[in-house]
Amino acid sequence: MSRRIAFRNARLVDPASGLDVKGGLLVENGRIADIGPRLFNDAEPNDPEVVDCRGLVLAPGLIDARVFTGEPGAEHRESLESASLAAAAGGVTSMVVMPNTDPVIDEPSLVDFLLRRAAATARVRVLPCAALTRGLHGETMTEIGLLKEAGAVGFTDGDRSIANARVLRRALSYAATFDALVISHAEDPELVRDASATEGEFATRLGLPAAPAIAEAMMVERDIRLVELTGARLHFGQISTRAALDAIAAAKARGLPVTCGVSAHHLTLNELDVGHYLTFRKVRPPLRCEDDRAAMAEGVANGVIDVIVSSHEPQGADTKRQPFASAAAGTVGLETLLAAALSLSHDGQASLSYVLKALTASPARIFGLPTGTLSKGAPADLVLFDEHAPFQVQAETLHSRARNTAFEGRKFAGVVQQTFVGGARVFER
Amino acid sequence: MTSAPAAPILKTSHLLGIAGLSPFDVTALLDLAETYVVQGRATDKKTALLKGRTLINLFFESSTRTQSSFELAGKRLGADVLNMSVKTSSVSKGETLLDTASTLNAMRPDLLVVRHQDAGAAELLSNKLDCSVINAGDGAHEHPTQALLDALTIRRRCGGFENLTVAICGDVLHSRVARSNLILLSMMGARVRLVAPRTLLPADADRFGVEIHTDMEKGLAGADIVMMLRLQLERMSGAFVPSVREYFRFYGLDRAKLAHASPGALVMHPGPMNRGVEIASDIADDVQVSLISEQVEMGVAIRMAVLDALSRGTA
After folding, report:
1. A230, CA 20 to 30 Å: which among B70, B93, B97, B182?
2. Residue B1: its pLDDT value, please?
């Protein structure tokens, strides 16, 4: 007998189709079998499993397009399994993981390893990105064709920029041969060397080594030129400045195959949140001025920014409990992604559907995934959440092994109640 | 041995590239070469057509087959042949190309065959020397005798070039063979396709009136001739192509990919081959499909025809 789950009394929000109605949804054999405003209205469904959604939002499971884990190589910090627990608790049903591990994911056999480990241990889908250059050294391209066949969904050096334009030009050109997606990290590596803050009055007052914010726009502009030359699809993993946003808006207006993301923390925090050297708010790129942060919110609202990501980056006390300049950059974020993103809709800057689009339909489109939608036949990756339930972020309640959250003490609204991957419940509050 | 009529064939005293030739020139050279195919298969392969003339093979890049092919062509026509390679010349001692040219000129050669790593080197020498210059490969520019020998091989097998689809596959970017061939084959009425990863395709290749393919199976679909190009070792380690195994997987000619070409499609390679890189051994060695040995034989005949034609003066 087929496995069925009936969801009733839901507020169905599917950004892919623009749907936002009250109704029901039926899951059969791990896929969405039916959906509609009248489904299960009249008669109580006689299915073995019924979920009464009590009017809460039922949406496609979130796709987090930028996640770092410690597997392989630093499982004590975060494994695929521990990250997936956090993901499930945050309504994230697919994690796009970065290749910055030890060893670096630059071989087809390592992509295969990650997929097998994920299948054996992770609660949510794991979509591996492979390195764009061997060993992330920025010198020679990886086997993009074979890696793509092995299951790599994108090619990136993660949090490293390709400094050498000749290398990037050839890698983009080669990637275009296979219609492979390249993900760029936009920071001029020499300008930002040793910097831990954005250059400006605040960094000066704190006496922190800082880099100018234009280090990002410079690389974005260079990369866009190379996209124009090579025809490759390029996604900027995360941007953080108005100048970069303007450059991408202009590139999109010219029809170039460019997309971009923003992290939840660059959307909600600015450089002043570093306060008195809070190393848990040290991130890469560093937090920016308020105008740049506001630009990120505008970018999501007007659609220039395609996706919102957590940039989940686990660190331990050993790497974070250091003087600011010596501390490691990065924040965990899988569990706070939805709530941080929803602050845009709560503030009235974008509709709920629009915010969710940046977490579901848009990443699915960029990575060519069958998920991120409530359409019939799609995999039943679902999140059920209470849009308005308030909570305060507390590190000790997080499900990830690493708890270095930049949002400690922050008050958000939006609590995940249940998460399903392929029709299987992976989280219930 | 009968010698061909001595009427002039070409309008120029040099052979610098296919780009300078007309379809009539090409046909005349191929026709003349046919007589040398016959001569090359006879017991007595030698004539005295170029008796007393001096041919210098000046090779700045190492080459076994092209140099020996020209050497044999010259000797079979009775010329005195001198081989100079860069290792034994003064160039390695700092002499410029033009210094070398004036030194050679003083030796009064009649024919100079030159291969050089820089595009335009043969043309530069042709401006400074009194003898006929034959380009045996200049950088990534042209290698006209290779294209002519390929054309002769194709014409003997297929009868002509009209309605023929030729897929040139591999490192087109660095290949003078590809450039000469695509000019010649297009000029003679064949449909030419270039098949390569984007990193190995030259900019604006589509402006040459050829089809561009990055998917080899699609590029080979319906092809009558599959012309494989050599991939230099130094280009396989990450700069243009990530690895040998990836290149072979997507662009190496094996039975599965060849099955997409026309039934009876023939395979060519200018040599030397990288087995297991651009071509599988079983295809290279299959006499039913591989024209590789025939290309070498036609090479000598074509070079005899070119030496003969240039020695006749201009039409």
Report:
1. B182
2. 47
Q: Where do we find the tokens 């939840």?
A: A264
Nearest CA in chain A to B213: A177
A179 CB within 8 Å of a chain B CB: no
What number of CA atoms fall less than 13 Å from residue A166's CA on the CB side?
5
Q: Which of B214, B242, B250 sits opposite A141 (nearest CB)?
A: B242
Contacts of B214 in chain A (CB under 8 A): 176-177
Write the ipTM: 0.88
Contact between residue B97 and residue B122 where contact means Cβ atoms under 8 Å apart: no
- Tell me how far apart the alpha carbons of residues A30 and A47 are, in angstroms, rounded to a whole number: 15
pLDDT exceeding 70 applies to what percent of chain A? 98
pLDDT tens sequence across B93-142: 567 888 888 888 999 999 999 999 999 999 999 999 999 999 999 999 99
Q: How far is CA A311 from CA A63, A266, A296, A314, A366, in A?
A: 12, 10, 15, 10, 17
Q: Please, which residues have CB within 8 angstroms of residue B59's CB and are 6 or more apart in sequence?
A: B67, B83, B84, B85, B86, B114, B115, B136
Closest Cα in chain A to B216: A177
The strand ranges marked E within chain B are 54-59, 80-85, 111-116, 132-138, 165-169, 191-195, 211-213, 225-228, 266-268
Q: Do A141 and B214 touch (CB under 8 A)?
A: no
Task: Report the pLDDT averaged over residues A355-359.
Answer: 98
